[in-house]
Amino acid sequence: MESKSNEDLGLYIAYGTIITMAVLPIYSGSLASIKGMKRPANASKAKKSDNPLDDSEDEDESVLESLTSGDAYMFPIIGSCVLFGMYLAFRYLDKAYINYILTIYFAFMGCAAVTKSLLMVARKVVPRAILKHVAKYKVTLSKRSKNISHISFTVIHGLLILASIGLTVYYSYTKNWIASNIFGLSFSVNAIQLLSLDSFKTGIILLSGLFFYDIFWVFYTPVMVSVATNFDAPIKLLWPRNIIDFVLQNNDQARFTMLGLGDIVIPGIFVALCLRFDRHMSWKRNPAGQFRSTRFPKPYFTANLIAYVFGLGLTMVVMHFFKAAQPALLYLSPACILSALGTAVVRGELSEFFGYTTEEPKKEEEEKEKKNKRAVEEIELDTKQEVEEAEEEGSIEIEEIELDEEEEEEEEEGEIRPQAKTTGSKKNNTSGKKRKNKK
C-alpha cells in the first residue's frame, strides 16, 4: 500500500514537472518573438542597449519565419510522411546506426540552440556590475567598402559556446536525460521565437489539421508510440515516473514520463501569435513608449497560456486513468483555439482577431516598391520623349558609349567615371558643330 502511494506521488511530481517544463519555453519564446515584429512607421526606434550581450544594430530586422495557410494545410501531410518514413527506417534498418546519424545531426543543431538559449539567460542573470567591465568585439565582413554583415561577441559568448560544446559531447556519449531535456528546451524556445503564424486563420488550420493527425497516428496505429520510444534524440522532454526511487536507488533502467516537443512548439507558436496580437492591439490604442517593450496588457496571451496548461493537465489525467498514451493535441488544439476565440468574442474584437496578419508590413513594402517603379517608369518615359523630340529637331545626337568591364562594374556600384561623361559631351558638341556647318 505504501509503495503504491509512493508510486502515485512520484507520478504526480512527474506530471507537474513535465507541465512546468513545457510552459517555460512557450513563455520565454513568446516574449522573445516580440523582438521579431516589424516596427510600425510611427514607432520610435529603441534606445541602444548598454548591455554588451545585446546586438542593438539588429533590433529593427525582422527575423520571424512566417507560416502561411498553404503551409498549414501541408503540415499534417508532410509530418505524416516523415513519421511513417522514420517508422519504416526503425523497423527495417539497424536502429543503432540510425540513432548514430541522428546523434551527429542533433549535436550540431543542439550546440547552436543551447548557445542561443544560454545567451538569453545570461542577459537576464549576469549582473550589470560585471557586464560594465566586459569588452565587446566586432568583426565586420565587407566587400568594396560595403558592409555585408557583422558579428559582435564578448568573452561571455566564448564561454557559453565552450559550455554548449561540453554539454553536446557529454550528451553524445552518455545520452543523459537531463542533458536531453536541456537540448529539448533550447530547441523549443528557438522554434517558438523564430517561427511565426501569419494570421489566426493559419493557426486554426494548423491546430485543426494536427488534431486529426495526432488522433490517427496514436489511436489507430502503433507508429507514433514506436517512433517516440525508438528515436534516441532530444525531441522529447523526460522525467522519471518515480523521482524519489530514482534518486535513492540510482536506477538507470527507470521508466520515464515523456512529452514530445511537437506538443510544445505547435501550440507554442499559436500562444506567441496571441502575444503579438496583444502587442498590436495595445499599440493601436496607445501608440506610446517602445514598441518592442513587453510591458502591455496581455489578455489573449494569458487566456491561451492558461488554456494550454489546462489542456496538458487534462492529457495527463486521462493518460493516468486509462494507462495508455494520449495524443496531446487532442486536448491542446481545442483548448488553444476556443480560448482565443472566446477572448475575442468577450472583448468584442472578433473582426480584428480574424483581420490581424503579420504580412501587413510586407504588403505596404510591395505597394511602395510599385509606386517607386511607376515613378521611375514615368521619368524614363518623359526623358525618352524629350530625347525623341530633340532628335527630330536636329539639335542633339545620341551616341552609345561602350564601357569596358571595369567601367560596367563601377556603373553598377553608382560610380561613373567623369571621363566617360566628358567624352560623350564632346562628341555631342562636335556633332552639333558639324550640323551647323552643313546648314
UniProtKB/TrEMBL annotation:
Protein name: Minor histocompatibility antigen H13
Region Disordered, residue ranges: 358-439
Cellular component terms (Gene Ontology): cytoplasmic side of endoplasmic reticulum membrane; lumenal side of endoplasmic reticulum membrane
Bias (Polar residues) ranges: 420-431
Transmembrane segments: 12-34, 72-90, 96-119, 151-171, 177-195, 202-220, 256-275, 300-322, 328-346
A GO MF label: aspartic endopeptidase activity, intramembrane cleaving
Matching InterPro entries: Peptidase_A22B_SPP, Preselin/SPP
Subcellular location: Endoplasmic reticulum membrane
Coiled-coil spans in chain: none
Composition bias type Basic and acidic residues, residue spans: 359-387
Record GO biological process: membrane protein proteolysis; signal peptide processing
Acidic residues composition-biased segments: 388-414
